[in-house]
Amino acid sequence: MKKPLMKLTSVAVMLAFANSPALAEEAKINIKKIEVYGTTPLPGIGLPLNKVPANIQMAAPKDVANQSGVSIADYMLNNMQGVTVSDMAGNPWQPEINFRGYSASSLLGNAQGLSTYIDGVRVNEPFGDVTLWDKIPSFAIGNMQMVPGSNPLFGLNTLGGAIAIQTKSGRDNQGMAVEYEAGSWGRQRALIEAGGVSKDGSVDYMFGYQHTTENGWRDYSPSHLNQLFGKLGWQNETTKLDLTYIGTDNNLIGNGFAPENLLSGDR
Fold first, then answer.
1. 132 and 247 in contact (C-beta within 8 Å)?
2. Is 80 exceeded by the pLDDT of residue 23?
3. Under CATH, which number does the domain 54-252 receive?
4. Most buried residue, 61, 92, 184, 240, by most Cβ within 10 Å?
5. Residue ranges of domains in the chain
6. Taking the CA atoms of the chain, what radius of gyration do you get in angstroms?
7. CA distances in angstroms from 50 to 33, 53, 107, 142, listed in the order given
């Protein structure tokens, strides 16, 4: 009686597998090509601002030159959203720029959270990530972007955003200019700059020198700045090369701030 039962069981199992439907092959899905453009400190492919998922704020050279101020910090304070400037060092060329709670300061020890680039080269100091704003000549700025957000493309410690600066070129600034101005607290500024292009259009040059001196708005706080800028470029139909030099010899005195009760003490 046992053997017929085993045969019937095996036949039933075979019939169950025979009646199971065959699995249909999955249809292929064609995905369209998706191109993703990232923002970088270098001049890129000309991506329109409306295609960048961030509130990028820009500054043109004419806008910076036409407004009063001693550094780019003054322009950023008056024209860019979310930017505040603190004068903790007591010197106008040593500001602390704050953007959405993150700072780029000249003071060592402050919590830095903004990266600063000039022509794609990061200029934050290796020790402390401080930004020496007096080392950036305002007359050499071609354009500037404030890129918000933490982006690994801009390197370490880019917590709140990045300031990307591109310098002038002789191709866009041909001719020669001489400027002189004087103001309060013994401030004097003299500037000479020149730019041009070679006859065949392949080489362009831009040079400038600015001397600034000031007695300071408080006693014993003079400042003397010598800023030199030079840029040499070459390009053809497919390639572009730029060599930029910035040299400074500055002497800044920032007496800082102190509570009045400490100053009144006889020491």
1. no
2. no
3. 2.170.130.10
4. 92
5. 54-252
6. 31
7. 20, 8, 36, 22
